[in-house]
Design goal:
Large-conductance mechanosensitive channel; mainly alpha; 4 helices; MSC/AndL
């Protein structure tokens, strides 16, 4: 039973997911520290007193809506999201995309996934242009690259 459970953890990437959750929780503390200690003091100077919009209410009869709490949550989300995005960009470098592979199409069966150096089509086995037609089966075409 232990072996089956271990195989499940490895096969379903549950272990990797658990590690990602732990690292994400630790990163959350870093992001919150940057936001609370560095960015929010600057935002507090640049914006009006938070109490003015956080305590804003709309009263519709007996219904009391508090849009100020939503505004505050949206502002916090945008700031924390921006900091998390910048931290991610700083630590995870994007790998350059590979250039698209050049291919050619077979003029007989019109399959478009042939290697440009191919002498025969792997789909219909037709002789392609530029390849000698009188080679025995399995013979290699001499390279013209010097």
């Amino acid at each position: 039973m232990w072996q089956e459970f271990k195989a499940f953890l490895i096969k379903q990437n549950a272990l990797a997911l658990a590690i990602a959750v732990v690292i994400g929780a630790a990163l959350n503390n870093v992001v919150q520290g940057i936001v609370d200690g560095l960015i929010m003091p600057i935002v507090a100077v640049a914006t009006p007193d938070p109490a003015t919009y956080q305590n804003m209410t709309w009263t519709l009869g007996r219904l009391v809506l508090k849009p100020g709490l939503l505004i505050n949550a949206i502002i916090n989300f945008l700031i924390v999201g921006f900091v998390a995005w910048r931290l991610t960009k700083a630590f995870i470098k994007e790998t350059p995309a590979e250039p698209p592979k050049t291919v050619k199409a077979c003029p007989f069966c019109f399959m478009g996934d042939l290697d440009p150096k191919a002498s025969r089509c792997p789909h219909c086995t037709s002789q392609l242009d530029g390849a000698p037609a009188n080679l025995p089966p399995g013979a290699r075409v001499p390279s013209t690259v010097g």
